[in-house]
Amino acid sequence: MNIESYEKNNFTVLKLEGEIDLSSSPVARQHILDTLNKKQNIIVDLERVEYIDSSGIASLIEGLQAAKSLSLSFVLTGISSSVMQVFQLAKLEDIFEIRESVESVAD
After folding, report:
1. Which among 80, 81, 10, 18 is positioned nearest to 43, based on CA atoms?
2. pTM for the full model?
3. Among candidates 86, 98, 34, which has minimal Cα distance to 14?
4. Angle, helix 54-69 to helix 25-37, in steps of 10 degrees
5. In 3-state terms, what secondary structure has residue 42?
6. Among 17, 48, 69, 105, which residue has the least CB neighbours within 10 Å?
């Protein structure tokens, strides 16, 4: 998994690429929490994520909870249909703010 980070308006965008699984989810989790600890709103761009497992979902949930406790925005963008199926199976698609693209949030 690769992670690219950049600023877009009032958000830090974390662009994740590859697979978010048991071996890579701790890295994603740490990037998310580090961003939130800097008091920055966050967009997690999943456009190039091909696969996510329960540990990846757990990292996103932890990030969402941290953002809420800090009164920060936490938005997911670019979710592919295969990744969305995982969210739907876990009944989490309504828990997260999900947008089509980074531009639809940060412009």
Report:
1. 10
2. 0.95
3. 34
4. 10
5. strand
6. 69
